[in-house]
User: Which sequence fits this backbone?
């Protein structure tokens, strides 16, 4: 799933086309942001728009790979979005959601939640803790796949029988799998010009005695890298 080296020069130019064409990255947020699945208003992943000169170049130059990506995006937009149960997850599209009830004020701090079971330790960099009152119920940070690819990583509590996941995609772009013995769902990109996968993994199922724990991995990385990073993260889970 990695990009061929001879097409590497196309990626910046293609971003201009694909940013303008695709709406699949918008999940309950405007302006090109993807909201965190478990904490409304919490940390989010943003793809920076391509510089104006690259967007202009992309509209005047064509290449078979770019044209194919445009066709793939158009075909993807014509398909209905999937919602419903899938492999132990509830896919809810762009529906506003909250997987963790909080009766107190929500806040975030740029630090590791030392003493919390959600503390990722040294597995993530630039960690931000999300709190309900004084209790931590989510963390976000930067993760690195074994290949060196960077990703935004969230590790959050969820309540309820299954986690509710904000994915807007047709069924054929959703793949269920098992990672380190844990249930997972992978959102494949709608085009193959550059990587942009999104992966959710249930680390611990929700129970009456304790909330569940779910990881989300997203960013401009291949599906292989997303899975490899999840394997590395779960290998260090408590």
Assistant:
């Amino acid at each position: 799933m990695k990009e061929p080296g001879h097409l590497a020069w196309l990626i910046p130019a293609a971003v201009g086309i694909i940013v303008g064409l695709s709406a699949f990255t918008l999940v309950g947020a405007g302006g090109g942001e993807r909201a965190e699945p478990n904490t409304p208003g919490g940390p989010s992943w943003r793809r920076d728009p391509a510089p104006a000169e690259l967007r202009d170049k992309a509209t005047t130059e064509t290449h078979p790979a770019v044209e194919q990506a445009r066709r793939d995006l158009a075909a993807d937009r014509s398909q209905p979005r999937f919602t419903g149960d899938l492999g132990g997850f509830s896919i809810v599209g762009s529906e506003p959601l909250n997987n963790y009830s909080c009766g107190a004020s929500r806040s975030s701090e740029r630090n590791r939640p030392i003493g919390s079971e959600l503390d990722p330790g040294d597995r993530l960099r630039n960690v931000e803790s999300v709190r309900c009152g004084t209790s931590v119920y989510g963390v976000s940070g930067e993760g690195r796949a074994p290949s060196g690819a960077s990703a935004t990583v969230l590790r959050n509590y969820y309540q309820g029988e299954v986690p509710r996941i904000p994915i807007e995609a047709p069924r054929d772009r959703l793949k269920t799998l098992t990672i380190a013995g844990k249930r997972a769902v992978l959102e494949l990109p709608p085009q193959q010009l550059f990587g942009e996968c999104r992966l959710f993994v249930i680390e611990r199922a929700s129970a009456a005695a304790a909330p569940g724990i779910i990881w989300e991995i997203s960013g401009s990385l291949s599906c292989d890298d997303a899975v490899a990073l999840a394997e590395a993260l779960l290998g260090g889970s408590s």
